[in-house]
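Predict the 3D structure for this chain.
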Amino acid sequence: MKRFLFSSFILIFFFSILNYTNSAQSEEIYAYCLIKNSDLKQAKVGEEDYARFQGKVITFLISFDEDLIVDVSDDGEVSVITGMYGPTDMQSFKKTSNGINYTNKIEVVGETEDQRFTYKYNNKLTIVNGKPKLLQAVVDQTGFSMNSWRFLIDCRDTEYTSEEIKIAKNDQPKKPKNFEELMEKIEKNRDRVITKIKTYSLFIEEDYDTVLLLELMAKSANVFIISYGGFEFFEKVYNQKDNEGYTFIQPSNLKKQGDMTSYMNEGYEINNFEWNFIFRNDDQIITSNSLEFTNAIKKYRGANQEFSISTLKPDVAWYAGTFDLVNNTDDLIRIYKKNKQTYCSILNEEIIITGKNLELAYLNPDFRNFNKKNNINCN
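Done. Predicted structure below.
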């Protein structure tokens, strides 16, 4: 606790000087991120290291005037995740459409080669309406051994109670008094119980009649491309049993509208792409978990870059769609204004109902609240 008080004194003194220099008071917020056992499991942290992190709180102090973030956590162990060591190790950040992003590199120098490592950090903090929601920490280790960890840790702007911290260590709350009765109800409605929240990103096609959903898991990903109402060439290209065709994923600025070859530039071909095609009433859907295909989409998601997907079925047809990441509430409004039917159809997708959107840090109730706040009616 003494270390934390001393750290806070340094920070207050530092920001006071900056504020005095700028003749204006900085806008500062705290972010409290509680590390749960499930967060460590998802990040593939070794169980022998759980005790180092479980139930500990990462505490950030963020100054938006100076664009600085600092780890003021009471426990120094969490610096392995934040990439900041002590109150003097402040990092500048870039503002994004849904929060902030900072990077850092730390070199650990040992006497022998197997004691030398480099840790690279690419961390994002999702902030919605001024409130921190989610820490996405990407830690890559290189050196004698190579490792990579991907943390998704829920955050908020108020401190955690001792009971909440205790629960986080086990990820299991105490059994309520009527536990047995609740279990009976769950057993009767087992198919309706959500046992694990899925995480996903949403992409909208430039014509606002097709979406791409990227379900993200620890070691793999699933892609769903849904053409609402169907499209003739989408069906001709993908409604086949042999998965034969030439598929390309490339930056959207390389395309020329209507020019097939401009969507199929050398160096962007996906060599291993397998998919399933299904009809759902009038909708047409393809699904795929092919590694090269999903990794390419994940790359554009990470860069927040618009991209096109095109497939040529020789002597039959070709299809191309241009997709953009939905990463803020303005994007939701834009979709609704362009195509209300598409917007409302998106909110009826199973993963939207049961999962968590990473860019917005939205669960299904958040979408409902957003609709109510903006007078959007999908009934």
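Residues 2-7+27-170 form one domain.
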